[in-house]
Amino acid sequence: MKLSKKGLILGIAVIVVAAIVFVGYNIYRYPAMFRSLSDHSLNDSQVEELREEILSQPDTKVLVAYFSYSGTTKNIANAISEKTGGDLFEIAPQDGYSNVYMESNSEIRNNERPALTDTVENMEEYDIVFVGYPVWWHATPAPINTFLESYDFTGKLIIPFCTSGESDIDETMPTFLNSCDGLAVYGERRISGTSELDGWLSELGLMYEELETTEPETAETDANGGNILIAYFSYTGNTEEVAQTIAEYTGGDLAEIERAEEYGDLQEEAEAEILDGVHPEITISVDSITEYDTIFVGYPIWWDEAPAMIATFLADNDFSGKTIIPFCTSSSDDIGNSLHIFNEFCPDAEIAEGLTANDLNDIEPWIQSLGLME
Description:
- This protein is α/β, with parallel strands linked by helices and 374 residues long.
- Helices cover 38% and strands 16% of the residues.
- It has helices at 5-29, 44-55, 72-84, 100-109, 142-148, 173-177, 197-204, 209-213, 215-224, 238-250, 266-276, 308-316, 340-345, 363-370, and strands at 62-66, 87-90, 128-134, 157-163, 184-185, 189-190, 228-232, 253-259, 282-284, 294-300, 323-329, 350-351, 355-356.
- Strands 7, 8, 9, 10, 11, 12 and 13 form a seven-stranded mixed sheet that branches. Strands 1, 2, 3, 4, 5 and 6 form a six-stranded parallel sheet that branches.
C-alpha cells in the first residue's frame, strides 16, 4: 500500500512538531543545557594544596552564605554555622519572585545576575566560604552566581552544598563553576538533613574539637529523639496512614489535628483561609506539647500550601528548642512550597528535613536518616 504524498507530508509535519515540542520542553526543563558554560576553577592538586595551607592556620575563619526560598537551605546553613563557628550571610535578591517557577527558569536560561539586597563587608577576613542553595531547574539559582561573581575569592576554599528532594549537586556544578574563575572549589555535597552534617564536616576537617568530644552523647540523644510526637491533619485518611507508620517506626505518640467546625464548602473555604492567612480554631488530641522534644507535623498539600489548621497549631504553641519534622502527602506537589510557615511561626525551633510521603516504603529510610528509628 503506497503512502500518498499528502499523508507523507502530514507524517513529516507531525514528526517535526513533536521534535520541536520535545526540544522546547527540554530547554524549559533544563534551561542551562544549551548554554555555553566554562570551568576555569583550580584543579584538584591546586585545591588540595590550598586546603592544607588553610587548615594548618591556627585561626581559620568561616562564612556560611546561603540562598533559601522555602527555608530548607536556611536550616542547613544555620546548623553548619553552629557546628563550625562560622558567620551567616543570607544571599537574597532585591526583587522577590512573583512567579518563582517562570522567573527563576528565565534567569537561568538567560544567564541573568539579579541584584542582591546586601553585601559581605569583610569578605577578605574569611578563609573558607560555604555556599548553599536549593537545586532549581537542575542548576544553581541565579542569585548564587551573582554572589560568586561579586567578590574576590582568590586564596579561599569554596564549599558548595545544596538541598533537593531528587537532584544531586553534580547537576548544578556546571552553572556553579561557570562563576568560579580561578577559585578553589572543594567537598560539594547535597545535604538531605542535619543528621548528615557531622560526617561531612569531619571529612572536610571542619568539626570543632569540643563538638567532637561530645559527639557520642549527642548521637545518643539524636538516636533516642527524646519524647516524640506525631501531630497531623488528615482529610482523606492518607496523611493519617503516614502518621501511623511514623509512629510505628519511632515509638512516638500520635495527635490528630482537627478543624473545630467542619467545612461547608471545602474548596472555597479552605482556599480562602490559606490566601487570607486565617487561623481557624482547632482541636487536637494532646493536652500539651511541652514534654516533647521532637515533633513531626503532617498534612496534605492544598493549593501548594499546608492547610490553615497547621498554621493554627504552629502559632498556638511554643516550639522553642524543639525539633520539628514536617511531612506531607500529595499526588503532584512537593513539600517545599509549604515549609515557609515553619520558619514564620517557629523561629526558635530546628526544622529538620521534611518528606513528601507518596509511598509508605519511603518512610523507613527517611526515619533512619533522621536517626529516630525505635
